[in-house]
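Work Package 3 (structural annotation) set out to generate three-dimensional models for the target panel prioritized at the project kickoff. During this period the team completed the workflow that converts sequence records into discrete structure tokens, so that structures can be stored uniformly alongside our sequence database. As a representative example, we reproduce one entry of 417 residues exactly as it appears in the project archive.
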Amino acid sequence: MSETVIPTGFTRAQTVAVLAGSSVMLTMSMGMRQSWGLFSVPVTQDLGITVADFMLAIAIQNIVWGATQPIIGAYADKFGCRMMTIFGTFLYAAGIGVTMAATGTWMLILGLGVMIGVAMSCTALMLAMAASARAVTASKRTMILGIISAMGSVGSFIAAPLAEGLISSHGWLIAMVAFLGLCVVMLPAAFFTGSGDKAALEISRNSTDPADKITLRQCLADAARHSGYVITAVAFFVCGLQLIFIAMHLPNYLALCGQAPWLGAAALGVIGAFNALGCYLLGWLGSKYPKNVVLGVVYLLRSLFIVIYFLVPATPVTTLVFAAIMGILWLGIAPVVTGFITQLFGLRYVATLTGIAFFFHQVGSFIGVWGAGLIVDSLGNYDRAWQIAVLIGVIAGVAQAFANDKPTPQAPAAAPA
């Protein structure tokens, strides 16, 4: 009996393989990425560097991730995801190895910054979202992408407690060894993420949809002229700034407030747990309501709760409640952005276009992680950092909510089902 083919042109087995592989790959990749803040205190003390030096390595990781994402995405659009995801997994492990061997800032920048930054372009959200988007029908796309994104949050729920426990009992180098083990788990998942590569390329080659016939140059020109896409890409900058500020600096902020080290790891774990709910919720909302409005409301709500948290005393209760709320508003934004860009331009160059938008996200991450490190080193507190994060969040939220959501004339089939 021949394999059942679903409306996307993928077989059912290919769809399951892509979605399962993307989920596990995100669990490992994003789990480690969101736990680097836990290494800040032990690494800076062991290597004799400042918080700003450590955060510079994380900032470079994020800007390299963003700068290489459009390039990696373009290769994946042309040749398929598998080659990129497997390469990224090996590079991730190599970057951890160089980080473990670091004796100062420059080796830290090379391993934790440059190498893992490129690896994230291959193994994190954008390629996983692009591969998954092709495997499901338009009517279910945003919700399914929300479920896939939730697995990235499950990763932080696993990786953060694992790292904190090993750092406390055996030191940060043993925690890094455990992360190498997560890379081993990620390798077969990276392979299965590319299970639909041949089918996707064949579908694109035989398609009669105008959206699949335009060139990359034409698509990029359309994107540059589309105000909705431009606003979404620039507003994604704010997402990166706010999230990396919280993920990387919350443990250090709690230490300045006199809280125990376990609270930072617990907060990251709570973010991960509630992000699973948030990804599903935002994916569902994005499938029912205008995606630009959903995105705008998320930016505004994040800003509101950042204000509330930093104006009240930091306690275990306020911190964990804040983490739960931010978890609901965390990675769930990624499937909505991917769904919105697919709505505007179709699937043909979705990895490239989401990669360009993600570059702006990572510019925000670079500024959020390093800028906040400079602020706390110079002023001794995070007041100015969170105030800036709130201000630009409000501006981005309003602009995004009113962004143009009409598909391009060259891609009428990209409209949501």
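The two ends are 31 Å apart (CA to CA).
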